[in-house]
Structures are given as structure tokens and as C-alpha cells.
Design goal:
This protein is of the alpha/beta class and 263 residues long. The chain has one domain (3-257): TPP-binding domain (Rossmann fold, 3-Layer(aba) Sandwich), CATH 3.40.50.1220. It is built from ten helices and eight strands. Strands 3-2-1-6-7-8 form a six-stranded parallel β-sheet, with helices on both faces. A two-stranded antiparallel ribbon has the order 4-5. Strand 2, helix 7 and strand 3 form a beta-alpha-beta unit. The structure holds 2'-O-acetyl adenosine-5-diphosphoribose (OAD).
Length: 263
């Protein structure tokens, strides 16, 4: 990563009053959570995520799909926030008007101390009743206990709703489903009104989430991207910082506010 680009991005951040940070799977890669477009590993390598993350897949084989989510949930529980997540929490501490919008279904931003992330694609930790959104779904106990190995490749029957006995499903957005309306509209509002949007670790190809940095750019905000690879968002970004989020974000925070955040 070029030092001059880092300094340019730091100046932009220092001048910003309203900031949006928009994250994708890449921010959690250095915590050991695979990105969405990585090959699935282990026993799950024989399944295609696009075939598991759909309402049809859950309807056809709920035990298979619930087992996959139990495995993913167990992996996330064992993961720790990395220096990139912590740097985003540090930006929030510096800038009162900072909104964090994530496409991730993990809870690593929250565990890093971020205030309140807008989860555009739901959460692994918010299961719900398939029949009625209003029915409270108590969180099921992990099959092997928190400390156990992830139940990789195991079929696990989903629990039943305690109100109506319908199946409980993962509280994530599946292919073919709409995004949660309140989350999407809060993200659009924040992107329309910010001075700087920082897009981190996303391929920028899954819509409507991928509109968020584009909306910011159209509304006159400066968009800065952190990603080791080129993405379709390069064209709307004023600065592209090529590197991993755990390396670039702490360096950017230090270049903007000093090594101890002295401002
Ligand atoms: P992707 O898996 O599509 O893209 C991950 C991006 O992170 C890529 O552009 C990588 O170059 C970048 N990357 C990898 N390692 C990185 C690192 N250490 N630091 C920074 N960047 C890194 O993930 P998303 O863009 O989040 O949707 O995918 C968007 C949506 O597609 C997901 O939320 C999911 C999926 O379908 C739903 O589940 C609805």
C-alpha cells in the first residue's frame, strides 16, 4: 500500500463530520471466518452455499441447512475480532456521527466494541420462527456446548417455536429474500448523508447492499476502499487502499488521529 494514498485517505477522514463504514466478509477473514466466495472446506466442500442458503433448501431438508448454520455459528463463536474490527470501533470513538453498516452475519463488530451495527443480511445469532416473525425464538443451546468442536457436516434438526411449534430458522437473509426494511432504509439514509464512506472487505457484487457505497458517491460523499483485490467499486472510490483490513485500518486510524488517537 502506498504511503501517499494512506495520507490522502487520512486527510479525508480527518475532515469528515459524518462517516459510514460499510463492511463485508473480508473484514472477518483475518479472524478465520471464510469469505462468502471462498471454497467451502471440510465436509461442506461438497455443498454449494448458494444451494444451502435458500428458503427452498430449508424447506426441502431443514436438518441439513440447520446443521450448516450450527457449524458456521460454532466457528464464529470460536473466532475473535481482529485489528480491523478494533480499528473500526476506534473510528466510532473518534467520530460521534459514525454509522457502521455490515453485510456480515457474525457478531465480531459488536464483540470488538462497535456501538450498533446495521446488519443488512441478518445475524447468525437471531433465529426466528418460520411461521410468524412476532413469535419469540429462544436461542437453542449449541449441540456440543460452547467449547466443543464445530459440528462440521452434521445434520441437526432445528428446534420448534415455543409458541406455535413451527420450525425455527436462522435469522439471516437467504438468496431470493428481501433485506430487512428498517436496516436497509437506515443504511440508505446514512449513506445519503455522509461525508466519507469507508468500504471494507466486500466484493461489491451482491445487491441491493452493493448500492450503499454507490449511493454515498452519488450523494457527493468521498468513498475510500480497503481491499487487497480490485472490485467493481473501484470506479466510485476516490482512494483505493490495497491491503488487508487488519493491516490497513489500524494504519489509517493512526495516520488520521495519531497512534494514541490524540486527534
Ligand atoms: P465476498 O466473499 O463476496 O467478498 C469478500 C471480499 O473481501 C473480496 O473482495 C476480497 O478481496 C476481500 N478480502 C479478502 N480478504 C480480505 C482481508 N483480509 N481484508 C480485506 N478484504 C479482504 O463477501 P461480501 O462482499 O461480504 O450475502 O459478500 C456479500 C454477500 O454475498 C454476503 O453478505 C452474502 C453473500 O451472498 C448473503 O448472505 C445475503
Amino acid at each position: 500500500m502506498e504511503e501517499a494514498l494512506l495520507q490522502q485517505a487520512a486527510l479525508m477522514l480527518r475532515d469528515a463530520r459524518r462517516i459510514v463504514v460499510f463492511t463485508g466478509a473480508g473484514i472477518s477473514a483475518e479472524s478465520g471466518v471464510p469469505t462468502f466466495r471462498d471454497d467451502l472446506t471440510g465436509l461442506w466442500a461438497r455443498f454449494d452455499a448458494h444451494q444451502l442458503a435458500t428458503p427452498e433448501a430449508f424447506h426441502a431438508d431443514p436438518d441439513l441447512v440447520w446443521g450448516w448454520y450450527e457449524w458456521r455459528r460454532a466457528r464464529v463463536r470460536r473466532a475473535q475480532p481482529n485489528a480491523g474490527h478494533l480499528a473500526i470501533a476506534a473510528i466510532e470513538a473518534q467520530v460521534p456521527d459514525c454509522t457502521l453498516v455490515t453485510q456480515n452475519v457474525d457478531d465480531l463488530h459488536e464483540r470488538a466494541g462497535s456501538r450498533l451495527a446495521i446488519h443488512l443480511h441478518g445475524s447468525l445469532f437471531a433465529p426466528r420462527c418460520v411461521a410468524a416473525a412476532a413469535h419469540p425464538a429462544t436461542f437453542p443451546a449449541p449441540p456440543d456446548g460452547e467449547a466443543g468442536e464445530p459440528p462440521e457436516g452434521r445434520r441437526i434438526p432445528p428446534p420448534r417455536c415455543s409458541s406455535c411449534a413451527a420450525l425455527v430458522r436462522p435469522g439471516v437473509v437467504w438468496f431470493g429474500e428481501g433485506l430487512p426494511e428498517a436496516a436497509l432504509s437506515a443504511a440508505v439514509d446514512a449513506a445519503s448523508a455522509c461525508d466519507v464512506l469507508l468500504t471494507v472487505g466486500t466484493s461489491g457484487v451482491v445487491y441491493p447492499a452493493a448500492e450503499i457505497p454507490r449511493i454515498a458517491a452519488r450523494s457527493g460523499a468521498t468513498v475510500i476502499q480497503i481491499n487487497p483485490q480490485r472490485t467493481p467499486l473501484d470506479e466510485v472510490c476516490a482512494v483505493n487502499l490495497r491491503g488487508t483490513s487488519a493491516q490497513v485500518l489500524p494504519a489509517l486510524v493512526a495516520a488520521t488521529w495519531g497512534p494514541n488517537g490524540e486527534g
